[in-house]
Design a protein that fits this description.
The chain is an alpha+beta fold. It has one domain: Beta-Lactamase (2-Layer Sandwich), CATH 3.30.450.
Length: about 160
């Protein structure tokens, strides 16, 4: 009986989180966008957020909530940063491509953020992105940026 209740609780929690997932950028197939981001930089320790410029409303999330909220070295000598924090900065115009060593066995950290240049026929608000990777074989921030820009184009952004 206890196992049934646990399974039910986990199932309900999963449904609740799925209901909170952003629908994706207007006019873009979110599943295709997820596939393209996964091909470009996918990893269990990767977070990519697409936000509306100005409001910082998240319209797309690649990676789980914990990965996106986890504080990691900011690589600019000033404490830690989460991808959620960087998304807010990106919505306000922050652009960065940086990487650095993480502490202990955490490997390296790579950050990228900036505006998304949408195709001429795309509709909807102006968008920005924030991305973070951490692990033993993390791409440099410049490479994360280049790969994500290609993924965004392939997904129709």
């Amino acid at each position: 009986m206890r196992t049934s209740l646990t399974v039910l609780a986990v199932g309900l929690a999963s449904l609740a989180l799925a209901a909170c997932e952003p629908a994706g950028p207007k006019g873009v197939d979110s599943e295709l966008l997820t596939q393209q981001v996964s091909k470009a930089i996918g990893d269990p320790n990767t977070c990519v957020l697409i936000v509306e410029k100005g409001s910082a409303q998240v319209v797309f999330r690649y990676g789980d909530y914990m990965t996106c909220a986890l504080g990691r070295p900011a690589c600019d000598g000033v404490g830690t940063l989460s991808t959620d924090d960087l998304a807010k900065l990106a919505a306000a115009g922050d652009m960065r491509t940086t990487s650095c060593d993480a502490t202990g066995d955490a490997g390296r950290v790579g950050w990228a953020s900036g505006p998304i240049t949408r195709s001429a026929d795309a509709s909807g608000p102006d968008l920005a992105y924030a991305a973070n990777m951490q692990g033993p074989s993390v791409l440099p921030g410049r490479e994360i940026k280049i790969r994500l820009e290609g993924a965004f184009r392939k997904a129709g952004l």
